[in-house]
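Weekly sync notes, structure subgroup
Attendees: PM, AL, DS (notes)

Item 1: joint prediction request from the bench team. They want all two components modeled as one assembly rather than separately. Inputs as received:
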Amino acid sequence: EDKVVQSPLSLVVHEGDTVTLNCSYEVTNFRSLLWYKQEKKAPTFLFMLTSSGIEKKSGRLSSILDKKELSSILNITATQTGDSAIYLCAVINTGGFKTIFGAGTRLFVKA
Amino acid sequence: DVKVTQSSRYLVKRTGEKVFLECVQDMDHENMFWYRQDPGLGLRLIYFSYDVKMKEKGDIPEGYSVSREKKERFSLILESASTNQTSMYLCASSSPPVMNTEAFFGQGTRLTVV
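Output from the run, pasted for the record:
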């Protein structure tokens, strides 16, 4: 059964800290991995990682895909209170239309 | 600015009621999805549609049905609501190819069944 596992489930840090969120997957016919940020509303897209683009960076956020280890990490440097959110990892396979989501990591950044 | 709109942010319904959750997107996307989100379980796919009048079951379709009469609108129907359907429901849309494209989400409907 395809699955995506995120860790930790929740995390509390101080402003300015650097955090690393983990995502591992067991998916047949992997195609791509996506990271989303969900605050109080809809998840918003952060990154997409495929075999041809295994590292992405945007400002203080960066993500790496390790196809050998079947995992990805999302790094946030110099965290701010506005980074407080649930971070969702999702994997798309080539077998169909499905996107398999992890349970998410709830990040809380204290001022 | 892309937009996926769900008709209600919060709903409270009684057990046994028929419940309609509506989702509209203005991006001319072919694909639309309904997920439910529960703590510790992440997003789970209920149904999706890749064209008007086409629908496919996701991972947890039991107790739900869907309707896609127009390209921009995808409705989720709870035929007879039960307390275990209390959850956050999220609608999403994307354009083909489904693989390797991001999905745009609505704001979610928090449904409570009492």
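Discussion: DSSP finds no helices and eleven strands in chain B.
Action: AL to compare against the crosslinking data before next sync.
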